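Late entry, NAP complex.
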Amino acid sequence: MKQLFSLEGKVALVTGGSRGIGKMIARGLLEYGAKVYISSRKAAACEDACRELSAFGDCVALPADLSRMDEIGRFTAELAAREPKLHILVNNAGVSWGAKLGEVPEKGWDKVMDTNLKGLFFLTQALLPQLEAAGTAADPARIINIGSIDGIQVSLFDAIGYGASKAGLHHMTRTMANRLAARHITANAIAPGGFETDMLAPMMATIGDQIVGGVPLGRIGGAEDIAGVAVMLASRAGAYVTGAIIPVDGGVLTL
Ligand SMILES: NC(=O)c1ccc[n+]([C@@H]2O[C@H](COP(=O)([O-])OP(=O)(O)OC[C@H]3O[C@@H](n4cnc5c(N)ncnc54)[C@H](OP(=O)(O)O)[C@@H]3O)[C@@H](O)[C@H]2O)c1
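Prediction complete; structure with ligand written out below:
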């Protein structure tokens, strides 16, 4: 039982691992023994984050724009050439576009959907051979999608496409879980509440008190809060969990 959370010998990919929630999860996976690839668009930031994360284990930076089909093709070919098996895929890269319902531009809608839904789906599809090669009946490969409580409840923020993309991601997660179980791959989503990252920074600066005041546990989330659930899902501890949408929100959804 003491090895329940060990990730020794596992290979993981964390998209959007250069900062924020992705970096918190990458560090957790590294500390529990996985080799972790991180990816994001800005190559220098991705490599800087990887250098920093290397203090905790074997980290590799592979920058790519994972909202674009050509980049997904290039990226997955490069990863496949390096790693025949991928045990853990954390689909974390995500963007939002703040605008009132009557003012959402097509450009903003497309950016959110291309990153949060289309890119996530086609990246996962392209990586199925490596996930299938890694999974066994006793120890399936893991897909961990990062959704949001905004995909479950109507948000405080004006970002209608973002909430719709995360609701779609949650549903896609359940479908992946159902269709991939026989191939020894689980799929779960983590639905974070507020975590202080670049994405949340503008809202924290303007309505931070309201955000924190709306959390029953009285604080926003930190690195251990999100990494703990990701490590559980990625390790032996989470081998029998699939199709779950797990809120990590300090109780916001209980209100
Ligand atoms: N922070 C919160 O309170 C909160 C709450 C609920 C859900 N979430 C979800 O958690 C995830 C991470 O959010 P965060 O708050 O950590 O955001 P963040 O600080 O803005 O980080 C986003 C990460 O994704 C990368 N990224 C964005 N677009 C990409 C693309 N097209 N291809 C590859 N990488 C891309 C970014 O790097 P580049 O810019 O260099 O590409 C960065 O590494 C998102 O899915 C978000 O929706 C966050």
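Helices lie at 20-31, 43-53, 69-82, 106-134, 160-180, 201-213, 223-234. Will revisit in the morning.
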